Amino acid sequence: MDLDGVLIDGMPFHVAAWKAALGPHGLRIDENELYELEGIPTADVLDILAKRHDFSLSEAEQAEIVARKRTRYGEIFSPQPLAGAKDLVELLDRLGYRLALVTGTQRASGESALEELNVRERFVRIAVPPENCLVIENAPPGVASARAAGLPCVALATYLPAERLRELPGVSAVFETLAELTVWLQEEADRSKARGAFAFSQAERSL
């Protein structure tokens, strides 16, 4: 399960931090482009942006931008749970699913977010067959990681439109809200006795 865009509304803080870091260099980036790169490490995002937009930055400038972005994010970040996030976690825990969090955000921010939701103890390391796993993502890099690992994945249209997420290879179903996803997961648990595997055709029919 991802953090930003699945459990918390964290990307606005990343966007604001990027603007603060790039602004002094006269660089402007559309927030939708940052949504597409969500989950990629800060330095790598800067490399991608520099190549796409032909930024001419010295190594010192690159280091300064990365440091400024990280610092600003740490200053302004405050966990903002998405509506239905705690309900989702509590349902999955109650059904007996093992939960793991995979995120590109800073560990301290992730821990803070889970504490804010009061669900920290629900997340553990898991050891189950890939076909019985389910990745819940909202961004292209996360979906790509799930696909590379051979894991089934559903996507949540938090920042990017559902149509964009449906284009991504490896996405089995797309949900507009956490409430829709939670209903489907309950239905899947009823069908499979919470043992997997997941019936994605049913999810698509429900959309």
Could you please describe the fold and organization of this structure?
The chain is mainly alpha-helical and 207 residues long. The protein has 2 domains: 66 residues, Putative phosphatase, domain 2 (DNA polymerase, domain 1), CATH 1.10.150.240; 122 residues, HAD superfamily/HAD-like (Rossmann fold), CATH 3.40.50.1000. Helices cover 51% and strands 6% of the residues. The chain contains 10 helices and 3 strands; from the N terminus they run ααααααβαβαβαα. It has a 3-stranded parallel sheet. α7 links the parallel β1 and β2. The longest helix has 18 residues. The radius of gyration is 18 Å and the shape is globular.
Instruction: Work out the oligomeric state of the chains in this entry.
Output: single chain
CATH class categorisation of the largest domain:
Alpha Beta
Individual helix count: 10
- Unreliable stretches (pLDDT < 50, length at least 5) are none
Would you list the SSEs in sequence order as H and E?
HHHHHHEHEHEHH
CATH superfamily of the largest domain: HAD superfamily/HAD-like
Radius of gyration: 18 Å
Q: What is the mean pLDDT?
A: 89
Major beta sheet summary: 3 strands, parallel
| Spatial strand order of the main sheet | 1-2-3
**Based on the structure given, which CATH architecture of the largest domain is correct?**
3-Layer(aba) Sandwich
Q: Identify the overall geometry.
A: globular
Tell me the helix content: 40-55%
Name the beta content range: 5-15%
Can you tell me the number of structural domains?
Answer: 2
Q: What's the total count of β strands?
A: 3
Note the gap between the termini. 21 Å
Task: Enter the CATH topology name of the largest domain.
Answer: Rossmann fold
